[in-house]
Amino acid sequence: xxxxxxxxxxxxxxxxxxxxxxxxxxxxxxxxxxxxxxxxxxxxxxxxxxxxxxxxxxxxxxxxxxxxxxxxxxxxxxxxxxxxxxxxxxxxxxxxxxxxxxxxxxxxxxxxxxxxxxxxxxxxxxxxxxxxxxxxxxxxxxxxxxxxxxxxxxxxxxxxxxxxxxxxxxxxxxxxxxxxxxxxxxxxxxxxxxxxxxxxxxxxxxxxxxxxxxxxxxxxxxxxxxxxxxxxxxxxxxxxxxxxxxxxxxxxxxxxxxxxxxxxxxxxxxxxxxxxxxxxxxxxxxxxxxxxxx
Amino acid sequence: xxxxxxxxxxxxxxxxxxxxxxxxxxxxxxxxxxxxxxxxxxxxxxxxxxxxxxxxxxxxxxxxxxxxxxxxxxxxxxxxxxxxxxxxxxxxxxxxxxxxxxxxxxxxxxxxxxxxxxxxxxxxxxxxxxxxxxxxxxx
Lengths: 294, 139
Prior knowledge:
The complex is a heterodimer of chains A (about 290) and B (about 140). Chain A is built from 3 helices and 11 strands. The model of chain A is unreliable at about 1-5, about 20-35 and about 70-100 (pLDDT under 50). Chain A is of the alpha+beta class and about 290 residues long. In chain A, the strands form 2 sheets. Chain A has a 9-stranded mixed beta barrel with strand order 1-2-3-4-5-6-7-8-9. In chain A, strands 10-11 form a two-stranded antiparallel sheet. Chain A starts with a helix and ends in a 5-residue tail after the last strand. With about 140 residues, chain B is α+β, with helices and mostly antiparallel strands. Helices cover about 20% and strands about 30% of the residues of chain B. Chain B has 2 helices and 6 strands; from the N terminus they run αβββαβββ. Chains A and B meet through helix 3 and strand 11 of A and helix 1, strand 3, helix 2 and strand 6 of B.
């Protein structure tokens, strides 16, 4: 009886293997003959609502009359050699800060925030930078991950946008439609709980449940902070994410800034695991490097 | 010919992307612990090449003025695999035993650690360390 059932399983397994093999043979030419654009969604999503693909952050539009961006030849730093090709890109000679306006913190929080910012600037100027969550290899969380310091991948499936940021392997899920999580039930996390609805071709996203330690630009927030986003394609290969941080307990008015992206076709994302993080925070809060680990 | 065209096109793409993204250039952390204004050149033998996040590390045994001309073991911080891949590095292009020349910004705290600016491989190829780390200022 036992032998017979083993024989039956073996025979079934053989049939399945044969079936799989013939299917592979049958499908292989089709797969080769189709050119797959993996940078776009395949669900029949109209282009105006299609955020699927790999993206890089993009500079804001140049103000009218501004000087054109210098070419790498003008700067003498070849991007092929790893230079950014742009003067001022080095942190030590004053990289342009992200275009984020000063947070409209209430006076009782603004003083402490400004004092800390000054401490960070002074320590950096002295060559004794203070440790940040980056040094601890913690993910940036929301909304920092949307800055896309490294390329970002958006997977658009039915009822969900999944955003993967290469830095720190950050993953964020936005549920489109359905019931939002009540703020008092939102378990705090790095990326919070996001749901969205369509307003024409704009995806309107609301996020709640951000952990206290997650502080974009070092800005503190309450447990009731809401991050509103309006994501909109500006053309086939660009989209922008208009962010509004609403936090009446900490802010005098909503804090607004915009992230912009450009399509990076055919980019394949790299993994990012903090395998051996040699940076650490010393007893004084300063950032240090562990040398000669052996 | 075609390969050159592709290479040139991809360098062009890298250039454009770098230019567009430079206004928000940001690294994993501040590089202010390295003395960018007093870069040094070291020539030595690679004892280890660790290709990983959050940084790639090159361990180099090289004589230096700091060690009175004697050979010291240097820990040289490179960018991360993603940044380095995007500017043409490959995970296996440096191996223990390789003789390389590097231009680095040493740690300000006096330890034998540094931030890479530029590396010259045994075959003469030269690689930078990505936009956030900045270029070599000496040669």
